[in-house]
Amino acid sequence: MSDREPIYVTRPALPPLEEFVPYLQEIWDARILTNGGPMHQRLEAALCKHLGVPHISLFNNGTQALVTALQAADIHGEVITTPYSFVATAHSLLWNSLRPVFVDIDPVTLNLDPARIEDAITPDTAAIMPVHCYGHPCDVEAIRAIADKHGLKVIYDAAHAFGVRDDGGSVLRHGDMSVLSFHATKVFSTFEGGAIICRDKETKQKIDRLKNFGFEADGSTVSLHGTNGKLSEIHAAFGLMQLEGIEASLARRQAVDLRYRQELAAVQGISCVEGKNELVANYAYFPILVGPTYPLSRDALFRRLQEHGIFTRRYFHPLITEFPMYRALPSAEPANLPVATKVASEVICLPIYPELDDEQVGRILSVIKESAAA
Prior knowledge:
By secondary structure, this protein is α/β, with parallel strands linked by helices. It contains 12 helices and 14 strands.
C-alpha cells in the first residue's frame, strides 16, 4: 500500500467552516429548523433559477423523492426501467408496489435503450423510468415518442444530472417529473437531500403534501397517505453555500475529465464513456471500460489501483437484476441484458472531484499506463 494520501472516487466539497457559521446563526435566530423554513424557500427559489426549471420540491434524500414522484404520478402496474443503475431506482418501484421490467442499455451512452422498450410493453405497463446515467442524457425524444404512442408516464431518475443541459435547456424538463439526488457524493450536495422537478403548480402542491404526511395547507387536514420527506433548514443552508461555488467546482471537474480523456486515448483496451446529447455536461463521474485487449482484467486493475492507495468504484456492479429481490423476474435474465451484463463486468469509475489535484490525477494515470505496458 502506498504511504501517500489515499485517493477516493469522490469526496464531498466542503467550504470553510467559518463561512457556514452565519447561516447557522440565521437559523438559530429564526428558531425554525425544518418544515419549509426560510432557508428551504430560498434554496427552492435559487435552484429554480439556476437550473431553469419551473417548479422544484426539496426532499431529505433522492430515494424518498423517487418514491414520492411515483406516488404523485398515481402509477400502478409495471414500470420499464434499467438494470444499470443504483439500486434505489428499482427499490422505489417496490415501495410503490410496482413491478419493475428491466430492459437492456445502449452500448454508447449506457442509458436505457429506446429500441428495446416497445418489446417490453404489455397491457400492464404504466410508465417508463429511465436514468440519465453518469449525467449523460437519455434519448429523451425517442422515449417521449414511445410514451406518447402507448399512453405511458415518464419519470426520470436524474440523480446524476444536476445542471446538465441539452440544446433545448435543462434535461430536467423532460418527462412528467425528474428526480435529483443531493447526496454528499453528488456534484451539488446538501449532505443528504434530493428534489422533484415537475411541470405545474398543482403537481408541486401535491408533492409538497405527500412529503409532509399528506397534510393540506391548513395544517389540520390530512388528505393523502404521505410520508416525512422534508429537507431541514441546515441541509438547505449547506445547499445555498454549495450553489455559490458550483461554477468553480464544475470547471475543476471539467479539467480533470479532459486530462483523463487526453491521456487515456492512447491506452489500448481502455475506453472512456461519453455522452452524445448534452450541450452542457456536469462531469459527475468518469467511467472507463476495461476491455479484453488491456493486459489486466477489470477486477485486477481495480485491485492494482487499490494497492497504490487509489480507491475506485465498479459502478454499477453488480447489476440491480443480480440482487435477490430482482433476480427471479423474467426480465432479469442475463440473456435479456447482454450489453448491461458486459458493461458491468468492465466498468471502473475513476476519481473526479474539485479537490483532486494534478499530482493525484497523475498518480492515477501512471498506474493505468504502467499496467498497460507490463
